[in-house]
Write a structure and sequence with these properties.
- It is a single chain.
- This protein has three helices and six strands; from the N terminus they run αααββββββ.
- It is α+β, with helices and mostly antiparallel strands.
- The protein has two domains: 55 residues; 88 residues.
- The strands form two sheets. It has a three-stranded antiparallel beta sheet, with no helix packed on it.
- The termini are far apart.
Length: 170
């Protein structure tokens, strides 16, 4: 008659049991040491600090501040300016969406300035379809000296006006 002793699973379970029991013995040996550390008058590390505060220790590590160095050279006064430039536009009533009045409008920067941003507003309540005007494309000119917007009036009942803006730097 042959007996089944459980195979590898039983071996692993027995090893886990002995490890668990052994860990408890180690923990039982550490607990009295931890209680001693809590009841000791001062811990070893506090004796090493000599009663000094963290700020005092930091000062002793870095030393005292040295004399102030000489003042550096003064930089040139800034000459770059940010400015806002605009150009008005006017679009006729669309009649229908396919035949909407379109225009390409550019707001130019001042001499020597570069466009860094831009956009548009309309008299119809703001940009986008809510104002009846659709901005199909918006961006800087090829020389970066202005901002161009392609606009289309989608409102069949009214003409719209507004402004294209260029934010310029320089």
């Amino acid at each position: 008659m042959r007996r089944n002793l459980g195979g590898p699973a039983l071996v692993v379970a027995v090893i886990a049991l002995f490890v668990a029991l052994g860990e408890g013995a180690v923990a039982a040996g550490i607990v009295p040491l931890a209680k001693h550390a809590l009841t000791a008058g001062t811990a070893t590390n506090s004796l090493k600090l000599g009663g000094r505060t963290p700020a005092q220790i930091k000062t002793s590590l870095h030393g005292s501040a040295g004399p102030t160095g000489p003042t550096g050279p003064q930089g040139a006064a800034g000459s770059a300016q940010v400015s806002l430039h605009s150009q008005t536009f006017s679009l006729n009533a669309a009649g229908d969406i396919a035949g909407g009045d379109s225009a390409t409008t550019t707001a130019n920067c001042g001499s020597g300035q570069k466009a860094v941003g831009g956009g548009y507003t309309t008299n119809g309540g703001g940009p986008g379809l809510a104002g009846g005007v659709l901005g199909a494309d918006s961006g800087p000119t090829s020389a970066d000296d202005g901002w161009t917007v392609i606009l289309t009036n989608l409102d069949g009942g009214a003409a719209h006006t507004g402004k294209v803006y260029a934010i310029c730097f320089g």
